[in-house]
Specification:
Length: 148
């Protein structure tokens, strides 16, 4: 599998297989990645590279600061992923992928989640739920938490 980004001779970015730009990645992550690539677009020599590297570091520092100070809307941090298997069947497994962690929380809150449904979640620090370590909260849970 190819996973790289580079700059073509005409200055346009060429991005392949990088997780940050997948369609289900949070908008915030996609935007920060695109901003970093833009900063690299005009690099023609070592001096340009050093200057661009400093600008990329600034973009990342600002993004982290925005996260820490709560300036990033929760909706911009959500992953949207299709559930390919029946979540009820996956509940029996020892390890759950994050979309299924989300699906189980939604089912427990009374929502119906079937094979083929799209779930939205935000990655958080690990926590215990139904005796398992989870790493995501449903988007709705995070949205309610951010308002309080």
């Amino acid at each position: 599998m190819k996973a790289y980004f580079g700059i073509r001779n005409d200055g346009t970015p060429d991005v392949k297989g990088v997780t940050a730009i997948k369609s289900n990645s949070p908008t915030f992550i996609q935007n920060v990645f695109r901003d970093c690539v833009k900063e690299m677009a005009d690099v023609k020599n070592q001096t340009d590279y050093v200057e661009a590297k400093n600008r990329v570091q600034r973009v990342v520092r600002n993004a982290i600061k925005d996260l820490k100070t709560g300036k990033v809307p929760i909706k911009d941090l959500q992953y949207k992923v299709e559930v390919h298997e029946d979540p009820a069947e996956k509940m029996r497994e020892k390890t759950l992928h994050q979309p299924y962690q989300c699906a189980i929380q939604l089912i427990d809150s009374g929502r119906s989640v079937q094979k083929g449904a799209t779930v939205s979640f935000v990655k958080v620090k690990p926590f215990q739920y139904r005796g398992k370590n989870l790493h995501c909260e449903t988007y709705r849970t995070c949205e309610r938490f951010s308002r309080s």
